[in-house]
Amino acid sequence: MRGVQLSLSKTQKLRLETALEKLESLSSTTSNNSNASVIVADTIPINYEDGVLKGHGTSEMDGRVVATICGVVERVNKLVYVRALRARYKPEIGDIIVGRVIEVAPKRWRLEINFSQDAVLMLSSMNLPDGIQRRRTALDELNMRSIFEENDIVCAEVRGFQHDGSLYLQARSQKYRKLDRGQLLRISPYLVKRRKQHFHHLDQYGVDLILGCNGFIWVGEHVEAKDDMVVDQMIKSEQENASLSGSVSSREQEQSHTSVEIRQHICRIANAVRVLSTLGFMVTVELITELVDLSISHNLDIHEMLGAEFYVIVAEKEAERRSLATKKR
Amino acid sequence: MRCITCVTEKEVLYGKRVLLWLQRILVLYFSLPLSLMLRSLQIGLQSMQVHQQPCHIVYTDYRPTPLQHYFFPSGGNGLYLVVDEKGKFRENSFQKALNALVPPGEGDKKRENGKWQKGLFVGKAGEDSDIFKMVKMIIQRQYDPVICFSFSKRECEFLAMQMAKMDLNNEDEKVNIETIFWSAMDMLSEDDKKLPQVSNMLPLLKRGIGVHHSGLLPILKEVIEILFQEGLIKCLFATETFSIGLNMPAKTVVFTNVRKFDGDKFRWISSGEYIQMSGRAGRRGIDERGICILMVDEKLEPSTAKLMVKGSADSLNSAFHLSYNMLLNQIRSEDGDPVNLLRNSFYQFQVDRAIPDLVKQAKSLEEERDSIILEEEDSLENYYSLLQQFKSLKKDVRDIVLSPKYCLPFLQPGRLVSIQLIKVDDNLPSFSVKDDVTLGVIINFERIKGLSEDDTNKKPEDASYTVDILTRCAVHKDEAGKRTISIVPLKDPGEPAVVSLPISQIDSLSSVRLVIPKDLLPVEARENTLKKVSEVLSRFAKDGLPQLDPEDDMKVQSSSYRKAVRRIEALENLFEKHEIAKSPLIEQKLKLLHTKKQLTAKIKSIKRTMRSSTALAFKDELKARKRVLRRLGYVTSDDVVELKGKVACEISSADELTLTELMFNGVLKDIKVEEMVSLLSCFVWQEKLQDAQKPRDELELLFTQLQDTARRVAKVQLECKVQIDVENFVSSFRPDIMEAVFAWAKGSKFYEIMEITQVFEGSLIRAIRRLEEVLQQLIQAAKSIGETELEAKFEDAVIKIKRDIVFAASLYL
């Protein structure tokens, strides 16, 4: 909630405060003491065990284990490490990320992904548009801009780290593609929890939602993932048809047109994400759809979702939900 | 692999490699045209199904150089052509070969204790050994170069040593060999050149004799391969590995054994192995035909030989199995779905392909069943079940009465007993109320000697007994000279013989005893005794042979006996009343009903297998393994890989779970680098060494820590219903080379560490190379958890072990 600028009326302020207090009390009861939070230079107690493994965010000083970042101490068997709060994104192999192309370099694109370095997507580690497996030629290299240009939004998967610590991506699947006709939202990466699924197709709205682990979230019109070969043939046959009837432009227009309805859905979902991130709640599909439903049931317009009243309602709802959950436990 | 338009694979699908290639084909999840050169068409079909892509399969049985197969009987003097180049099996020369087999003398009893291959070497004192004679003959007939395959490394070396007297090369060739040899050895350090294996090898090579097996130093192996290709080695002793993956044909191939030890027993070489090894015979374009000689040292049936020599390639069976590493890597990526991987696996494919067959089987069986129509089926069925009950009760009674406790005192010689007749040819049970019995005279009885010594502790009542009974038998002799004896009724023709039968085959004991002659050896004596038996029988013809009464005579006091007897009586009454019993043809009808019942049971079992195979073949195992991962905290309940899982992801060359647990328990943290390397060696060493010395105390301590961890991991797996044998798993970690690896990491010379252990040089080198691989993976793992000290330690370890002969570059590069 820090740094949120909301013009709240007095009653709204009061309601929000009580809701937040309630949330805080709930979280303090659930969290146990071993997950003590530390700041830089705090000593982490290790109970004189030997063979302690010091993981990320720790260092040894005069025989004591010391935290080097602010965060929460986590222990796995004898491994002690500090999980940072509100840090930059720290990639892990297999993560789904959304990034923006900042440079087209020889045989590779550089992507900004909110990491301490730019990520590299090699031309050889992505599928070519013609869908054929082959060696990348110089011609392909010249045509790289026809795949991704600067400022394009791309989703990809973290493939691994080089020895120098630079990050390599891969996009060998139909679902890793250039993203268009939608909105990109940037939130704190800690709000996106790693799950099995990061690609979501919200059927009822015709919208694709990609929760990038790096805190970049994509909300866009749904694109049917098709086999390249099939698409090729379809386009070919379409072109043949078009050349016969001479109505290329209208077809293309239809393909690139997004209906108003879907645009509204996109905005609504994007606003839901914004609300969640400003309130500091985890961003998950379930919560997003819940919020969208909530806004519709309250008969709120899209822009009203960012109004103070909705924030308060969401906070209260969440407090209620969590207290129910703890009671059940 | 990623940028290819067409994948061509040679017949790579052999042994363990199958797994690797299958995974690779599977993971190629793009659309590629594949051309595969395979032994098995099935794989091609599967690839088509998985990739939905055309798959060109090159398949041929044709050999450009035809093969001739000879037999060399051990102790004999010549070769016998068994299969000629047209593929015809010559029956008569096969028999001749077997007849030439020198029967094993009394001297080498060892052969019977499983160590029978010794017989091959021993030969007769003063004479040359078989293999020597054989090679001499081959050289005389100019059948060289020759590869002699044997199935163990030690045997290989031993055979080569027997060739000591032979010299197959001229002076020029000797000089050549020496130059090649030393130029290759040049890359070794001075110390390593003095290794016994290196220095012993040269004199042998110079005489044109080579040895090739996995225990050799890699560099020696490569030198020998090169020399062989150059034709400088005329006679090579190799293990099976030489036949796989290397394209090094010779004119002649010799099998020094027809049996191979496959882990638990000596078995015949399979036809697939035979094809692979005999495939080395005959160089294309040089030889007109390949010669393949099988050294036979025991009798074998023509059918076995035919199967071995002329059989088809082994059918390819999937050895696919789940590993935790694979599972974790699948879970980690968003696309990855282990279930999907399994669905596309070759194993699943094979199972799926079996289904239509099963359906067909079930259908035909059902038809057959329905074609059997019976009148009055209900009452017949009733009768059938009564009969079954009656039989089982009778059996119960007999079991009680004939339990050794009661019947032993009555098994005196001379007592007449009735014996059940067991029909060998058809297993249809008889359906009359009366059993088929015949009479015999007890001669003796004795306890069966069990294998264990415990027998002596058992009470006489509990042991099992056989009874020697004189009765009428039909004796058949088959070609092999084995006698099969079957008991026939007294009236039938046959010779009187004494057979030993288990007690359970005795139907009942009579109260009559005969005086039997002391000497039963002459046939007449036995014939006379049997005559007496029939006499007795005719005397008692009116009211049957008097039986020993269980309760009065034999003192059987048991309530269950009495109960059973009462029920039998009741059932007998029922039989008499049963209307259908009087109908004619009852026997046939019952038989029909029986077949029908059997068919129904068969259909049921087929349907059950069908049901289980439609479910995913590995589904249960997948579930169990996922449970293990969750229990150990590698993945969360909603399939997100945790920190520990990430570490295990990196480790693919050793047991990932045990190693990860070991690491997270801090075991690797506080020990010295050398100790750590030596501990890790337990993960990569798989051979079993019989009398390996124990490592020193510090290492021993570490090893017990490893065993504890392994045991814990295994127990968790067992609890999660993964099928695993805990102790087996724990003992799969071998401490045998710990000392040697410790010394190596300390900086010892290779010849020094070879003095510490008895393992083969090549095996040790392979282990250390694998160890380095594991260490590289551990570096990645340490990096991923951010433990820099440990990472530095692993890197240090790599530097320490990666030196000299162990990591000498290959000659082929």
UniProtKB/TrEMBL annotation, chain A:
Main location: nucleus
Gene Ontology CC: cytoplasmic exosome (RNase complex); nuclear exosome (RNase complex)
Residue ranges of every copy of the S1 motif domain listed in the record: 92-172
Subcellular location: Nucleus
InterPro entries: Exosome_RNA_bind1/RRP40/RRP4, KH_dom_type_1, KH_dom_type_1_sf, NA-bd_OB-fold, S1_domain, S1_RRP4
Entry's Gene Ontology BP terms: CUT catabolic process; exonucleolytic trimming to generate mature 3'-end of 5.8S rRNA from tricistronic rRNA transcript (SSU-rRNA, 5.8S rRNA, LSU-rRNA); nuclear polyadenylation-dependent rRNA catabolic process; poly(A)-dependent snoRNA 3'-end processing; TRAMP-dependent tRNA surveillance pathway; U4 snRNA 3'-end processing
GO molecular function: RNA binding
Keywords: Exosome, Nucleus, RNA-binding, rRNA processing
Cross-referenced PANTHER family: EXOSOME COMPLEX COMPONENT RRP4, PNAS-3 RELATED
Protein family per UniProt: Belongs to the RRP4 family.
Name of the protein: Exosome complex component RRP4 homolog
TrEMBL record, chain B:
Keyword entries, A-Z: ATP-binding, Helicase, Hydrolase, Membrane, Nucleotide-binding, Transmembrane, Transmembrane helix
UniProt cross-references to Pfam families, sorted A to Z: DSHCT, Helicase_C, MTR4-like_stalk, MTR4_beta-barrel
Domain Helicase C-terminal: 130-332
UniProt cross-references to PROSITE patterns, sorted A to Z: HELICASE_CTER
Transmembrane portions of the chain: 18-38
Superkingdom, natural source: Eukaryota
Stated name of the protein: DExH-box ATP-dependent RNA helicase DExH9-like isoform X2
Gene that encodes it: LOC140035213
